[in-house]
Design a protein that fits this description.
The structure is a homodimer of 248-residue chains. Chain A is an alpha+beta fold and 248 residues long. Chain A contains five helices and ten strands. Helix content of chain A is 36%, strand content 25%. In chain A, strands 8-1-2-9-10 form a five-stranded antiparallel beta sheet, with helices on one face. A five-stranded antiparallel beta sheet of chain A has the order 3-4-5-6-7. In chain A, helix 1 crosses helix 2. The radius of gyration of chain A is 19 Å and the shape is globular. At the A-B interface, helix 3, helix 4 and helix 5 of A face helix 3, helix 4 and helix 5 of B.
């Protein structure tokens, strides 16, 4: 299972992903689900992926082959020569359709879903930062100030804290904390989502990758955040009065 | 959608359910999903239901017809004349199978799943309190001190807080708070789960229904709990230091 998350705020975008790709008892593998593409000063794009590893890797292989082909041929459409983030998301959707045309029938024939959800976000010079969720069918939706985050994979355990406190006006560094708490809730309730956690913290108008970190399970900051959150939540419950009708 | 929850602790059992049965835009109905059956001094049983309303109502109608038949005929097997909670749960599973034999084929033919999950819990004199999750296939599992809660319906949003703080050693009144916070997380993240919330608070060895309350959306206690939780969680995030790498 996978959990990837992108938080859009006025100050920028936070991208987070777990790294567990197979949670069979003897098959725990660590794979990055975050790919960063930038042309500093012109654009920064980050692509998060959830689903069947073969499908998502095939999509990314095509994206990267198109980029390589684009170096020799300016006419070759690729992820980094689109006019807007909207057309970049449509481009990724078209690559997903290319993979569907190749593999979907064979997968479905064996009862394997064509499972591929992606988040693409970032900024292109002169435009505002945006994030998109691209579906297995190739279509997409984007976030907005009133619906400022997108999730793929195991999304539910980590949603309550975001619904509770994260808004478009939340600061970028505060957004990192919300993202890590959302990730931690998911790690705790679903053992098939696992550390390390990868985080990209993009600040609006910097047009370059910014802070990209890989946080191990025993990372002192992550441990401290988890510990404060765990103890804090339990104290909060204790401080709430007992309902009269449930008293001794 | 539905969310029902049962929390087993040394001091007793908390049962909670929402009451929304249809969340189509013009079709919000309130139906109880909690049924309480007791013979004070001998046994207390509580049955929570999630799934297709026709299926769950048909199951409960058969349960109640068997009870009525049992009044005239002591040999008639019913929910209140079982030897143990285990056989009570098997009995409910058999009633689900009776309904499946009647309706499952017709439902599946129109693409409607035979959706029926139930929680049965309580206590029989001389035995310990127990809770069971009964599946649409009629089989069941029970909770235990190391896995002390069961959920049916929209279960994920409300799971993190339980994983975080509720244990078999949590007090009964504290359990009510955990249950209401879990319910509130679900109400907030899924609009198709709705108030009023029904709660039954059963204390071990009382062998009678105990505190059974129906909590409206504007109930002062629920409003206060929600407000304290909401503000408390946001303050907790604010108090966590920002990671060095995400600073200004």
């Amino acid at each position: 299972m996978t959990y990837c998350l992108s938080l859009l705020c006025r100050e920028g975008i936070v991208f987070l992903s777990d790294t567990r790709t197979s949670a069979g008892a003897e098959n725990l593998k660590v794979h990055s689900k975050m790919r960063i593409y930038d042309r500093p000063g012109d654009r920064l794009l980050c692509l998060l992926s959830a689903g069947n590893l073969s499908v998502t890797q095939t999509v990314c292989s095509f994206v990267e082959e198109d980029l390589a082909a684009g170096e020799g041929d300016a006419g070759q459409e690729n992820l980094l020569n689109q006019q807007s983030l909207f057309t970049s998301a449509r481009y990724v959707g078209n690559v997903i359709r290319r993979v569907a045309a190749l593999d979907r029938t064979a997968l479905l024939a064996d009862g394997i879903g064509f499972d591929c959800n992606m988040i693409l976000g970032g900024q292109i010079a002169g435009k505002r930062p945006q994030i998109f969720h691209i579906y297995p069918q190739g279509n997409s939706i984007h976030a907005s100030p009133s619906a400022p985050f997108l999730q793929i994979g195991e999304t539910k355990y980590g949603k309550p804290i975001l619904d509770r406190g994260f808004t478009y006006e939340t600061g970028l560094a505060e957004g990192v904390k919300y993202g890590l708490i959302s990730m931690d809730a998911t790690l705790k309730s679903n053992v098939s989502v696992g550390t390390p956690v990868e985080v990209l913290c993009y600040r609006t108008d910097t047009l370059t990758a910014g802070k990209h970190v890989w946080i191990e399970d025993r990372d002192p900051y992550l441990s401290d955040l988890r510990d404060r959150w765990h103890k804090g939540v339990i104290s909060l419950v204790q401080e709430i009065p007992v309902p009269r009708w449930a008293g001794q």
